Each structure stands twice: as C-alpha cells, then as structure tokens.
Amino acid sequence: MAGPEHSRGSILVVDDEPTIGDVVSRYLVRAGYRARVAGDGPSAVQAALDQRPDLVVLDLMLPGMDGLEVMRRIRSAHSGRPAIILLTARGEESDRVIGLRLGADDYVVKPFSPAELVARVDAVLRRLDTTGEPDDELDFGALRIDPAARRVHLDDEEVVLTAREFDLLAFLAQHPGQAFTRSQLMDHVWRYSFYSDTSTVTVHIRRLRFKLEPDPSQPRYIETVWGVGYRFSP
Amino acid sequence: MAGPEHSRGSILVVDDEPTIGDVVSRYLVRAGYRARVAGDGPSAVQAALDQRPDLVVLDLMLPGMDGLEVMRRIRSAHSGRPAIILLTARGEESDRVIGLRLGADDYVVKPFSPAELVARVDAVLRRLDTTGEPDDELDFGALRIDPAARRVHLDDEEVVLTAREFDLLAFLAQHPGQAFTRSQLMDHVWRYSFYSDTSTVTVHIRRLRFKLEPDPSQPRYIETVWGVGYRFSP
DNA sequence: GCGCGCCTGAACATCCGGTGAACTCGGCAC
DNA sequence: GTGCCGAGTTCACCGGATGTTCAGGCGCGC
Q1: For B125-178, what is each residue's pLDDT tens digit?
Q2: Residues A172-203 pLDDT 10s
Q3: A77 neighbors A70 (Cβ within 8 angstroms)
Q4: Which residues of A touch B116 (CB under 8 A)?
Q5: Which residues are CB-contacts of A104 (< 8 A; sequence separation ≥ 6)?
Q6: pLDDT grade, residue B35 (50/70/90)?
C-alpha cells in the first residue's frame, strides 16, 4: 500500500547481537517499516514504552533479563498493544510453547533468513490489520473513553478500570454494535494465540458491567448476544 | 468450555508418509476435528474439491507433484476457501517464504509435535473464524439483516432472533431465490456431518416465520419448495 | 381421494451465561 | 525475605434460554 515514504508500521527489534539487529532492521526498513533496535532487556522495555511500536521482534536469549520476562513487561505495561514475534534457537521447544502461551503472535526459529522474518512480520501485521486502533476519544454521551489517557468517565465521574478491563471496553467500543465471540475478544484484547478457557472473558465482562452499568443485571452498554458473545451498544 | 462439540471443522492432511498422516489425523480427531488423509498431490487436490475442508495441512515434499503446486491448485479451485498450513523441513526456507507469499496461513517446521500442530490449527481457524460469508449488511427494504451486529430489523423494528434462527435466516438471505434442502441447510448452518433428523430445520423455519412474516401461514420471505426445502425470496 | 410431506404444539433435553468464590502470581511495603 | 494486596484466571453450580424430538393433523400435488 503506502510507499516507502509513509511507513507501514513501526517495529522494535530486540537482539543482543548487533549484527543480527542491524541486518534485520535494514531488511525491515527496505520492506517499508520503521525499525529501531534495542540490545538488551531493560532498554527494550523502555523503547517499547517510548516508541509504542506496532510489533516487537524479540530474541529470547538476552543477557541480563530473560526474554520471556521482557515480553511480559512489554505486554503488561500496555496489555494489548504491540504484536510480538519471538526469535528462538533451535530446539528450545519448551520456550516456544511457553512463549506462545504467554501470547506471542508468532515465532521464528534461528537461524532464519531476513526474508523469512519480513514475511512473518507482514503476515502478523496483515492478520491484525488495524495498525493499532486510532487513539481518538470515544464519546457516547454519558460514557466517554479516552484511549490515549486510558481513562473512562461516566457522567463526568471517573471510572477506574484495570488494564484488561480497559482494553476490553475500548475494543468493544471501537466497534460499536458489532457482535464478537469470546474467542475473538481473546484474540484481539488478550492477543493469545492459544487460549485455554474463554470464561475469563465472561468474568471480565461481568466486572466491567459492575463498574459501568447503572443496573448490571440489565446491561445497557455491553449486551449479551446469546450463543455468540457480546456487543457494545452506544 | 471447548468440550466435545459437534465438529470443530473438517481438515485434510496431505503427507506421503502414512505414519505422519495417521498420527496427525488421529490427534486432530481427538481435538474434535474431522480429518481425512491424502497421500499424494493429485488425490489431495481431488479430496479438497470433494470434501471442501476448512483447512489443509500440506506437506511441501510430495512425490509426483510439487507441494506449492498443490497449494496453488487447491486455492484456485474454490476461491480462497480452505486455510492452509504448510509442513516444511528445516532449511527449506525459500519454500516457506514463497508459501507465505502465496497465501499459506501458517507453516510448521518438521520435526514438530502433534500437539503443536493442533495448536496451530486451532489458532488459524479461530483467527479466520468467519467461516463464511462476508459481513455486508443485507437490505431487502422492510427487512434488513446485519451479520456483523447479528441484528435483524423489520420496518425499523428490531426482531430478536436466537443464534440458530439468525444463522439460518442469514444463510438463506445470503443466497436469495435459491432453494435448499433441509440437509443442505443442516450442513451449512448447523455444520453437522451426519444428522439424524432434519425436522429440526422445519421447526426453526416455523419460528422464523412466526417472528418475521406478517402472516406466518402465508409466508412472504421464506417460501416452502414442495418436496425440496425452502427458499428465501427478497 | 390418496399419500406423502409440511405445519403445529408442546414436552423434553441440552446448552450457555451469570455468579460467587477460590486460587495463582507479581508487585510492593516493611 | 516475608507477607499482604490487587489483578487476572479458573472452577463448579444453577436457572433460564435455546435447541430437539415427537405425535397428530392438515394441505398440497397427483
């Protein structure tokens, strides 16, 4: 789509080996992305917060901080945000599995070719389409949602939501009227590639209703779509 | 929650090594899918046409026909229908990249564990989810059907339908004027491979008519096609 | 007028979402 | 390090919503 001038998305590459980070980022730039490199865990977390990338390419073998730990921090800082592709060494089967459970969007086994990585990045971002939802404030009269500030107001009163609660509400509200299955919500809000149990969604919906709805047993904003899932009604 | 549902989808496994095909299909069946195995390219293409699987697990190394060629044929046969997961040997990296470019949904590198493959299958199918028609709103004047919201309006009045009722109506309306047998409706709406009794369809049609038709005994939208089944007339 | 197929009503079986509560895990204060 | 706390997850239970079955009667097409 957009030419090389207007970037296709911003990507953070985390690898302790400068050569790899360098080559990879160069390929990504050539493919039309904006790319940054971080060489260790702490600076990766920092960069993720500053830069707000759309995707992070993360080497699991990092000095100082475990790669999975980095991933968890990035995710928990802003629970839904960047997609993550893990780089794993051959045979780290357990790491792979753990990584995917923690919600990596994909992984690439080393050694890999830069072309393959780029293809993976393309695939993941294509699948997630929306290169990040817009951060415009959502105004539904009594209910106002500010994605940038991550605040919600109901009748000018602030409603304090947890990270997941906010992400869930924001996602639903960004697609008003559309019905989603619990699995879809898991995909978009939790970013889990593999889920065990969708009842987590149910519970979070309940808490949202408890905090938001005038009468939680008679929801006005978050409707149940029986046999399907939920729908936000403005 | 993911209990022993009806069937989660139909899968075609293509591998020239009987052992692999066998093990994989067994795991898939245990995970709740219907699975078929094909041992070579031509029969894979044939099976894909007959069976219309939701997903194809395709070994790239096939005797007789190149795996990528098989993939192309399957894809071109019916437009983009089945999702495709490629099995590739380590190091066949160019194939993998080409595969992804050609529109494979994922690939798994051999050797892989069956559990991992199943997880991948889950992920791909859930990601695509839609398992069906586009979400465009259907407008027939007084009757409007919104698949995304899963809502139906009749003369600007919302008609509340259950999940099955909605699916049935949406399917019929997506093929206006076309007559379907009860078995076909079972196939498409219920996704059963084997059904004992098609009278379920009859009952659901009745309820739909009751909710939709101005005069349910004189149906306007859902016509009976004697000796065949039903037809939606816009 | 006949027979098959469709409609009807209601009973029956099943599923699903809401709920409360327990449990895990990290973060934080001490 | 220890222990508390909050967020997130998991689980079992329950009641109502939903889906299925069935027998009888009616209507359609021949």
Answers
A1: 766 655 456 678 999 999 999 999 999 999 999 999 999 999 999 999 999 999
A2: 999 999 999 998 898 788 876 555 578 999 99
A3: no
A4: 96-97
A5: A58, A71, A84, A85, A86, A193
A6: confident
Could B100 and A119 be called an inter-chain contact, meaning their C-beta atoms sit closer than 8 Å? yes
**Among the listed residues A175, A147, A163, the one whose alpha carbon sits nearest the alpha carbon of residue A231:** A175
| Cβ–Cβ below 8 Å for A113 and B97 | yes
Closest Cβ opposite residue B163 in set A122, A178, A227: A227
Q: CA B168 – C1' D24 distance (Å)?
A: 27
Nucleotide nearest to A197 (CA to C1'): D10
Q: Express each pLDDT in A37-50 by its tens digit.
A: 988 877 888 888 77
- Four-point Cα dihedral B194, B199, B201, B207, nearest 10: -150
Nearest in space to B59 (alpha carbons), one of B107, B125, B122, B1: B107
- Chain B residues with CB inside 8 Å of A177's CB? 146, 148-149, 151
A179-181: strand order across its sheet: A179-181, A229-232, A222-225
Query: Are A119 and B97 a contacting pair at CB < 8 A?
Result: yes
Output the pTM of the full model.
0.74
Q: Which chain A residues are within 8 Å of B91, Cβ to Cβ? A: none
